[in-house]
Amino acid sequence: MATIGQNTLARDVATKAIFIDISKKIDSAISFNQGDCLIYDAATDKVRVATVETEAATFLGIAPVTVVSGNYPQIYNTQVNNSVAVPAIPGPQYGSVYRLILKAGDAITAGDQVFLAPASDAQTVSVTGTKAIGIYQGQALTAPAGGTVIEVLVGARYSNDTLKF
């Protein structure tokens, strides 16, 4: 998980979400940052960060908010927090252009498919994989250094493992 959540939306094209509210699809064991790539885990009925690339078969999109231990991050931690109702948590978004991090050394050209690279980071993508999550939108890059931010038209693969925008 990246250390700081940030808004990674570059251009709003046709933003959509499979799950509008994921408050019932996360629990206290789930944390992610705004901008992280999220999948649906059918075995646990939870939305979470992918741990391996093939989990992108149920890719949902980009997290619009940060969640820590199943809740929004708390500014103050007092006894009053226990009586506050659980707010809706917006689900992952897709259909627009988001800024993601290209895996170090990957050469890429406009129109290339991109794939999750969860071994690196929840916001890192690669030009190799088995389950495409989007299409690169920028100029050609030849073996860029690690941490290069690129723009990707992000789709979703849930529910039948086909990329849709």
Put the structure in a nutshell:
The protein is built from no helices and nine strands.
How is this structure best described in words?
The chain has one domain. It is built from no helices and nine strands. The mean pLDDT is 90.
Structural descriptors:
165 residues, mainly beta, five-stranded mixed β-barrel, three-stranded antiparallel β-sheet, 25% strand, globular
Strand content: 15-25%
Helix count, DSSP H or I runs of 4 or more residues: 0
Record field, number of beta strands: 9
- Return the domain count: 1
Strand order of the largest sheet: 5-7-6-8-9
Shape: globular
> Average pLDDT across residues?
90
**Mind describing the biggest β-sheet?**
5 strands, mixed, barrel
Distance between the termini: 25 Å
Structural class by helix and strand composition: mainly beta
H/E topology pattern: EEEEEEEEE
**Residue runs with pLDDT of under 50 for 5 or more positions:** none
Amount of helix: under 10%
SSE inventory with pairings:
Layout lengths: L8 E3 L25 E5 L4 E4 L9 E4 L34 E6 L10 E4 L7 E3 L5 E5 L11 E7 L11
Parallel strand pairs: 5-7
Antiparallel strand pairs: 1-5, 2-3, 2-4, 5-9, 6-7, 6-8, 8-9
